[in-house]
Amino acid sequence: ATVRQREAGTNQFGNMPHRLVMLGDSDISRWPAGLRDLSPAPAENLAAGGAVMSDLLAQLGDWRSRGDSEGEGNAAALFLCCAGENDVGSGRPVDAVLETLRRFLDEAVGGDSGDDRLVFVGPKLEPWLADDVRSRRLYAKLNTGLARAVRNHPSGREGRAAYVECLTAFCTEETSTVPGAVYGNRAVPDGRFFDGDMLHLNERGYEVWKRMVEVEIIGSATVGPRHSVGKA
């Protein structure tokens, strides 16, 4: 669903002062500092460019080791995560990526994770994929699998983990919902939301992404039209 199609409700994660912990690849590492106010507590960004799904486990371990050494091991965390695109881009089978995701969910928000919560942000169609039908279909398959894995995990069923679908969220409004948008190669990524590399989001794109995440973790206001974000 796009931001235009979704409205914020009550905060399903409650009002605990979770620390925002950002894990994943360059989509998360590049998240602008001024747009990290998704939690009352300061954000910690451990993401790194080029990261694959298995790197989430290492990043999580690094963060927990740091917290233990600083005496903050019992503070509740809100994990904001994104990974998987680099896996499929390097030829790793989607099923293997999903198996690693399940291991990560077990570690991050498994049975003994206390008040920790998690939001996983899915892949997005990007301008460089415009004529790459095979990669677009892989992204679509990855998105479907990630969504199912998060929602079927015990933490997802219990409301402690959520998945943000954004496969066509950064495509032009007139093409994002037409029949065959993804598998028919009809959804057209909107360059207004991307940096010059046509791969990473620009500030305007991150404003949209932040709103989509807020729907899951804050629920503080009705989210307006996707394409009005960033307009004067």
Quick gist of this model?
By secondary structure, the protein is α/β, with parallel strands linked by helices.
What are the salient characteristics of this protein?
single chain, 232 residues, alpha/beta, five-stranded parallel β-sheet, 7 helices, 5 strands, 10% strand, globular, disordered N terminus, disordered C terminus
Helix-strand sequence: EHEHEHHEHHEH
In this structure, how is the largest beta sheet organized? 5 strands, parallel
Name the helicity range. Answer: 25-40%
Order of neighbouring strands in the sheet with most strands: 2-1-3-4-5
Structural category: alpha/beta
**Low-pLDDT ranges:** 1-11, 219-232
Integer-rounded radius of gyration:
17 Å
What is the total tally of β strands?
Answer: 5
User: How would you sum up the global shape?
Assistant: globular
Give average pLDDT, whole number. 84
- Helices, by number, come to 7
Distance between termini?
25 Å
Percent strand equals: 5-15%
Give an overview in words:
- Helix content is 35%, strand content 10%.
- It has 232 residues and is α/β, with parallel strands linked by helices.
- A five-stranded parallel beta sheet has the order 2-1-3-4-5, sandwiched between helices.
- It has helices at residues 26-29, 53-69, 85-89, 94-109, 133-152, 154-157, 203-217, and strands at residues 19-24, 44-45, 77-82, 117-121, 161-164.
- Helix 4 (94-109) runs parallel beside helix 5 (133-152).
- Helix 1 links the parallel strand 1 and strand 2 (44-45).
Layout of helices and strands, plus pairs?
Elements: E1 19-24, H1 26-29, E2 44-45, H2 53-69, E3 77-82, H3 85-89, H4 94-109, E4 117-121, H5 133-152, H6 154-157, E5 161-164, H7 203-217
Parallel strand pairs: 1-2, 1-3, 3-4, 4-5
Helix pairs in contact: 2-4, 4-5
